[in-house]
């Protein structure tokens, strides 16, 4: 292979890494959010969730929560790739739906908060007593909702447009080269699992669950509630995320910085709190959407 091909391949790999980094908590993050949610989904709602889950999930919500990342490169699903995040104008530490929710081609209502509203509405129309105007695929709606509820809690999924949510901010993570977005999607969690939790993700999830019942027990009901008793409030989650992005993610992480223990240990509590909030809120939304277990398309178990 000549130099030309090598540099072309190198650029492609770099681009794939860049683009991949834009989109999502890593698999651990999504699994953790959905595992935490499973502990707070009511029996009735979980009964409905299990009926919607595809067979390959084997009744486990957490098994499907990375699915939107797995399919986004497929041509048929490419339109979903802008639904994993929302960007704010450079250096703006606030979020505004009407200002910020559009994709790179300028299509409005193509962003993570719009996707959360959309899939919540699809499930709402099916389970809240009126016939949906469209024949929605509710299995897909559930899998997208569970995924995007997690994404919107990753602070750099609501980052600045100029650096693609930290993706073009090149930093070091201990001895490796990476970008700031990937640090928040994956590396903080991976490093914590490896160095603090004996390479056992479930030990990290248990530690977060313990915090929910101990240190954060007074916060849980405020995390669950939405203004005006709305079913879901993604604009709030996005506003929190961009504030965390400014206060914790971008701070002391300018291009070329090598991030090590100081950064890792001070940001890990933020990551763990966002995973907890994502899980608690996903459960709350499912409980509000599916208060009664549905036997089939039209009949309640409880008449
Ligand atoms: Zn995602």
Automatic annotation (TrEMBL):
Coiled coil: none annotated. Pfam families: S1-P1_nuclease. Keywords: Disulfide bond, Endonuclease, Glycoprotein, Hydrolase, Metal-binding, Nuclease, Signal. Residues 1-24 form the signal peptide. This is Aspergillus nuclease S1. It comes from the Eukaryota. Its EC number is 3.1.30.1. Belongs to the nuclease type I family. It catalyses: Endonucleolytic cleavage to 5'-phosphomononucleotide and 5'-phosphooligonucleotide end-products. InterPro entries: PLipase_C/P1_nuclease_dom_sf, S1/P1nuclease.
